[in-house]
Specification:
It is built from 18 helices and 22 strands. The chain is an alpha+beta fold.
Length: about 550
């Protein structure tokens, strides 16, 4: 999905494994001139799938805004370095199981109330409590008592049974010590836990959230970040403005930000070129051909590499896709090198591993299902009993996915004789709603942008039973067991080794198909004099100077 952004320093790990901030912002810290201070920018975006509640947002349209409106305990440097403290004063542990967290005093939410330890504890308990339906609830599974507040639907979303009522409403592993301190006890030692705390699902929620409905709050969210919410006009724009009482490092140097929702990325690009849009995260594929975007934008063109992967996933809840030999056959019939060369003009790299290689703990070349082998693909397809009917591959049509999805479908059709075609869904929001409702009737685009820098984020949410983004409902008990062992490993090295074992099983099952590793071509307007990208390629709005 996503990651936060901002400062470019790193945390120091002491003998007690304490997380202590040791860096500062990569900007000069002086802010911009008078023009910048009162300036405004317009950036491109997509309509969020849901109201803006951190623990219920799993896609990048809403996630990008949450990353701007909230600040968490830790943050991820723009340069890809180790996490560093943000709202946390310190995070200490001696055993990787019990974490003592101290927050900075007297920081504020946008409604003027003070951010306290209980705002984290209450938010995490709400997100974990399964009757609340938070899509990111599985991220709290490390915490002791999670199983008591989160129960699973026994026969799946289509079955008649409902999940049993949880035994408790609060996790036993969370304890408020005082206004500025809380304690987290995990079910088992988990070395990666501090790294995860910058992900948006771990953000604090103000008291106002609990006084009303989550849906209504999400339509007018109250965060604690450098910008605050102003208004939301569905499918048109979201307006944000500087939060003048923000007290942490990454203060805004401009005042207003408008996130404009485009139904077509070529229209957004035209606005960028003409100066009517100030930042576009990814220019259309059509602009990449012949480096047109570079000649159009000149020194306003930004090329970057991001820890993201273009993926096509299978709806394993559909009986037609439940044979792993069929899934592997389809994957082996795809020539990823040809896709990246001819469709992306070399701006992407063919995927050969299950986690993006920029991710700590990722092992290159571990996706044997990513190899191009038509003979083996035909053999496996025959062993699977073939494929009857039409294979539709879906994508959201409001971004540049048509060309590469059609190319993949044509390769599958040519190399396997399957009647395959690509079909666009008009908007990303509708596309994601269909995926979350488990109503996809064919394979579908399912790219992944890491939430935090560790290989765990490429396994647990995507391929563990009940994972927050395991949208195809893939399930393998051996993978679950290995992932559980990996998550509870006493060190990151031991964790990564165990995740590598889980990935070998995932590679045999092929629940999805990694296609390409992300390369990003962004652009900004002439009025933007200075800016930085986050480590996942999003605009760091706190860095913008005009």
């Amino acid at each position: 999905m996503r990651v936060s952004k901002r400062a470019s320093g790193a945390i120091a790990l002491g003998a007690a494994f304490a997380l202590v901030a040791s860096g500062c912002s990569s900007s000069d810290g002086e802010g911009g001139d008078a023009t910048s201070a009162d300036g405004a920018i317009t950036v491109d975006g997509t309509e969020p799938e849901n109201p803006l509640v951190p623990s219920n947002t799993t896609e990048t349209g809403g996630g990008k805004i949450i990353d701007w409106v909230w600040t968490g305990l830790v943050e991820y440097p723009n340069n890809g370095g180790a996490p560093q403290n943000a709202l946390a004063e310190s995070i200490e542990t001696t055993d990787s199981k019990v974490y003592k967290i101290k927050i900075k005093q007297d920081t504020k939410f946008h409604d003027g109330t003070v951010v306290k330890a209980k705002n984290f504890v209450d938010a995490w308990n709400w997100g974990a409590y399964s009757p609340n339906g938070a899509q990111n609830s599985s991220f709290f599974a490390d915490i002791e008592g999670f199983a008591d507040v989160n129960t699973a639907d026994p026969d799946g979303p289509e079955g008649p049974q409902k999940a049993p009522e949880p035994k408790a409403k609060e996790m036993s592993g969370l304890k408020v010590v005082d206004d500025w301190n809380f304690e987290v006890t995990l079910a088992a030692p988990t070395a990666v836990f501090p790294t995860k705390l910058g992900y948006s699902t771990f953000m604090p929620l103000p008291d106002a959230f609990f006084a009303g409905s989550a849906e209504e709050f999400g339509k007018k969210p109250i965060g604690n970040g450098p910008v605050k919410f102003v208004s939301w006009e569905n499918n048109v724009q979201i307006k944000l403005t500087r939060f003048d009482d923000y007290q942490l490092r990454d203060k805004m140097k401009i005042k207003d930000v408008t996130v404009k929702m485009y139904q077509d990325d070529t229209a957004a690009y035209s606005d960028l070129v003409s100066g009517n849009l100030d930042f576009m995260q990814q220019v259309p594929v059509s602009a990449i051909a012949g480096d047109k975007w570079k000649s159009d934008l000149t020194d306003r063109a930004i090329s970057s590499t991001t820890p993201s992967t273009g993926i096509i996933a299978f709806p394993i809840y559909d009986k037609r896709f439940q044979n792993p030999k069929l899934r592997r056959a389809i994957s082996l019939s795809i020539n990823r090198q040809e896709i990246t060369d001819k469709i992306f003009f070399g701006s992407r790299k063919p995927a050969d591993s299950w986690a993006n290689p920029l991710t700590p703990g990722a092992a290159p070349g571990n996706c044997t299902a990513c190899q191009f082998n038509v003979d083996e693909a035909k053999k496996l397809l025959a062993e699977a009993g073939g494929f009857t009917g039409e294979l539709v591959m879906y994508y959201n049509a409001d971004a540049s996915h048509k060309e590469w999805m059609e190319a993949v479908a044509q390769q599958v059709k040519t190399n396997l004789g399957i009647n395959a075609r690509a079909e666009g869904v008009p908007t990303f929001a509708v596309f994601r709603q269909n995926i979350n409702a488990h109503k996809m009737k064919g394979a579908y685009r399912a790219g992944w942008q890491q939430d935090y820098p560790d290989v765990e984020n490429w396994v647990n949410p995507l391929y563990v039973t009940g994972g927050s983004s395991n949208d195809g409902l893939y399930s393998n008990k051996q993978v679950d067991a290995l992932a559980k062992e990996a998550s509870a490993a006493p060190s990151l090295d031991a964790s990564h080794a165990k995740f590598a074992e889980a990935v070998k099983l995932i590679d045999q099952d092929v629940p999805s198909m990694p296609i390409y590793f992300g390369g990003q071509q962004s652009g900004h307007s002439e009025k933007v004099k200075k800016m930085e990208l986050s480590n996942v390629g999003e605009l760091d709005i706190t860095s913008v100077e005009l």
